[in-house]
Amino acid sequence: MSLPRISWHIGDYLKDTGHLRAAGHGAYFMLCLHYYANGRLPEDDLSLASIARLTDQEWKKYKPILQAFFHDGWHHKRIDKEIKDAKERYDKRALAGSKGGIAAAATKQKSSNATAMLPTDSGNAEATLTTSQERKKDKTADAASPAKKYAFEGGIVKLSEKHFADWSTAYTNLDLRGELIARDAWLASPKATDEDRRNWFISTSKYLANRNLEGKAKIAAAMPRQSGGGWV
Question: Rounded to the nearest 10 degrees, how much is the dihedral formed by the CA atoms of 50, 77, 17, 40?
């Protein structure tokens, strides 16, 4: 199930975050987006710093401040509630759609039965008309149904299962879904140009390639170096 929208309660947010500087707001926002998209946050500092878009030194400074918004490690009660509410709304819509489909199938079956019972002498023309009308309805329903199912669907960025899998394989040093959420928000902002939005696939691919290199460099910098027979 995709959760492309999140309820952001501005008054509550401002009340709780009045002590944050701009970098703290940005880091907290990115942590929340990742949590909402994935249902959890990782526990290790390297991954959390990357999600928050902070350097290792910045993360050490902001970690105690940001962790105060969470409980039991990196769990967030408000976002857990938002995810639960979103899933309940989704389930209700799915149930309503299922009931509607069953009702439509029953109506169609009744129509087919009535057509089959038409008298032979006058039934051919009426049966042909009924069948034609049913086909027309079926075509209209097909046209109204979504052409694709996306692995990621934002306001602008929409990735098929194949492209999402390709990018997951190509950009292994990233939290791909979190990056796509951030990129989609940027493309929708005034900072992006119409050209950026028209060519979002190419521009996003280049953006992710650069972010992937940055992530790789961070991981390499965090690894201990081996010299001779011991770690230094």
Answer: 10
Q: Which of 59, 55, 57, 32 is nearest to 214 (CA)?
A: 55
- Residue boundaries of the structural domains of the chain: 10-75, 79-144, 150-221
Strands 158-160 and 150-153: antiparallel
Residue 204 has pLDDT above 50, yes or no: yes
SS (H, E, C) 180-204: HHHHHHHHCCCCCCHHHHHCHHHHH
pLDDT tens digits, one per residue of 152-161: 988 999 989 8
Q: How far is CA 60 from CA 31, 41, 142, in A?
A: 15, 17, 54
Digit-coded pLDDT (tens) for 60-80: 999 999 989 888 878 888 888
> For residue 159, what are its two tokens?
């990735």
Q: Which two tokens stand for residue 232?
A: 């230094």
As given in the structure block, the two tokens for residue 166 are 């390709």
